[in-house]
Amino acid sequence: EYVGCGPGLSQWSEGCLTEMDEMRDTFYEEDTCQLQEMRRELERANKNCRILQYRLRKAERKKLRYAQTGEIDEELLRSLEQDLKVAKDVSVRLHHELENVEEKRTKTEDENEKLRQKLIEVEVTKQALQNELDKVKESQKRRGSKEVQKSDKKSAQTPTEDDNDDLKCQLAFIKEEAVLLRKKTAKIDKEKDRLETELQKYRSFYGDLDSPHPKGEAWGPPTTRESELKLRLRLVEEEANILGRKIVELEVENRGLRAELDDLRGEGEGEGGSGGGAVGGMGAGRGHGEAMTELRQQLQLVEDEAELLRRNLADAEDDNKRVTGELNKLRFKAGTHEGGARHGGVAAGGVCSEKAEALQEELKTARLQINDLSGKVMQLQYEKRVLLSNMQRYDLASHLALRGGISPRDSDAESDAGGIGPSGRRESDDDSSSSRLQPPHRKREGPVGGESDSDEVRNQTRCLTPTRGLYTPPPETAARFLPRNLQDRQQMIDIRVEAERLGRTIDRLIADTATIIAEARVYVSNSDLYGRGEEEEEGGRIREHELLYRINAQMKAFRKELQGFIDRLEVPKPEDREEEPLSVSVCVCACVFVCVS
Predict the structure, then answer these.
(1) For the SOGA coiled-coil domain, which residue ranges apply (predicted)?
(2) Cβ pair 336, 281 in contact under 8 A
(3) Please, are residues 559 and 510 in contact by the beta-carbon 8 Å criterion?
């Protein structure tokens, strides 16, 4: 009976040894995970250092500018004080978190040392058991060899009984140790289950980290991951709050600058309409032009900073979306495991059906967003065509006003009434010269601005090309039409502002399309991870991806064309009165060439 119990105890002790080896390997892997987390923290610190270097260079440039002007930016000082407070709070929180992590690490090391001591004790008890088993085997052999001799058998009973008593005592001691070890292992298993449930709760609340885990490790130390998730969530929230405040401040400053720009435009129009001569209008226009250029520079700086803040906010939103995606993955995994444990295959099928329904709903929303984006693109293309036609008509009307100070319809009537006269030869010469200078005809859709007018109007516009003699109105005529030129210049500025606004709208649409494409990639990756769908659904996803990429490419091409149009758009300056017909004619020719191409 004792010999039969000996192999079972040896197997149980070997199992305990293997479990202790696995626990030791797990602690080594935890140390490796902590090393990798330290490296990731170092990378994040390097990234923050680069951001701080960029801000430092920017602050130095601002300091030089303020040193030259001799002004002090109070808003900058307030923002820096606020950033300093936030940095102090973050550093204090990080210090506390670091202290907590250090305490937990020391506790873990103490537990590891205790487990090592227990492992040594188990090895010692195993060796003692092995020795006792060897003694029992030897005594059994001796008893088998001495069974023939009765006298020897009687004399040998006493040491065998003593050995049996010793073995019984040792067996009771070993059983007590086994009971204690079983209790400790059960306690460790309960602690492990509790920590796993807490880790699952934190994953459901805060999401999972994006770092891959090393081989042989399921998740990392719960305490370290908990603190890292809390710290990461706090940092993201603080950064989002800071960016929100800065965006609000920049929007307020942008509104103030636009209000000042509108006031200056109104003053320029009032002074241009009420001025009595051309000299006063030109001086006011120059002064307002300088003020407007300065305001444009400030507005450009504010827009650049707002764009940088928007990019940072977009990065933070991408991180939040990625963490949300990982949270959805973990929830789906937890639901799948629970369903498999409780209800088996039927529940797993129900979870798969729920997943398919959720994916179908996401697909419908993506299709609706694609339809909205395509409608917006069509609307923007229509607005572009309307702006181009209005620009061409405005240029033609400005040429006609500079030519004779009359409307296009009156010029048509006069040309119809007086087209045949003493100047018929000159008109024929102009027609022949302009026909020689015309570019080759291209096939295009619909009339471009000015094509629906009469031949005389087109002949008058051809006479304004740089190859022919330019008509320079007398000073009294220029003085009479000075308010009209200011109004035309204001209309040109308004067209440029509308074109820039349209460009910003297209940029936002491109960003929204890129976000939809990224979300679609996340859904596709989720479907690849948790099971393949039907072939029809996969084909529909591929077609939707192609449609999204095509729409994004078309919007980018349209944005590039619009930017080229804005770059080629020239606003006539008030100080270049004598060379205004030449610059406007060149602008008209460039606009017509762009529309034809």
Answers:
(1) 163-257, 292-387
(2) no
(3) yes
HEC states along 363-415? HHHHHHHHHHHHHHHHHHHHHHHHHHHHHHHHHHHHHHHHHHCCCHHHHHHHH
Cβ atoms of 496 and 488 within 8 Å: the answer is no
The span from the CA of 57 to the CA of 264, in Å, is 33
CA gap 175, 209 in Å, rounded: 45
Rounded to 5 degrees, what angle do the CA atoms 509, 512, 518 make?
A: 145
d(C-alpha 182, C-alpha 98), whole Å = 35
> What is the mean pLDDT, run by run of 10 residues, along the chain of 597 residues?
64 86 82 88 92 90 80 77 90 90 90 89 87 85 69 53 72 77 78 78 62 42 61 72 75 75 69 49 53 66 68 71 69 57 48 61 69 69 74 71 51 42 41 40 40 42 36 41 59 79 84 78 58 56 75 84 77 44 40 40
* Dist CA 116 CA 24 (whole Å): 8
Distance CA 116, CA 21 (A): 10
Contact present, 538 and 563 (Cβ < 8 Å): no
End-to-end CA distance of the chain: 103
What is the distance between the alpha carbons of residues 246 and 307, in angstroms, rounded to a whole number? 11
pTM: 0.22
Rounded CA-CA distance 465/567 in Å is: 22
Q: What is the pLDDT of residue 289?
A: 60
Q: Tokens representing 298? A: 């400030």
Torsion of CA 363, 364, 366, 369, to 10 degrees: 170
DSSP character at residue 471: P
pLDDT for 528 equals 53
Please check whether residue 371 is in contact with residue 476, taking contact to mean a CB–CB distance below 8 angstroms.
no
**Alpha-carbon span 361 to 553, nearest angstrom:** 26
Handedness of CA 259, 260, 265, 269 (dihedral sign): positive
Q: Which helix (H) or strand (E) holds 356?
A: helix 345-404
Nearest residue to 439 via CA among 472, 465, 476 = 465
* Among 31, 50, 48, residue whose Cα is nearest residue 94: 48
How far apart are the C-alpha atoms of 370 and 364, rounded to whole Å?
A: 10
Considering only CA atoms, which of 226, 227, 225, 245 is closest in space to residue 237?
245
Q: Using CB atoms within 10 A of its CB, is residue 584 exposed (0-12), middle (13-18) or buried (19+)?
A: buried
CA gap 313, 310 in Å, rounded:
5
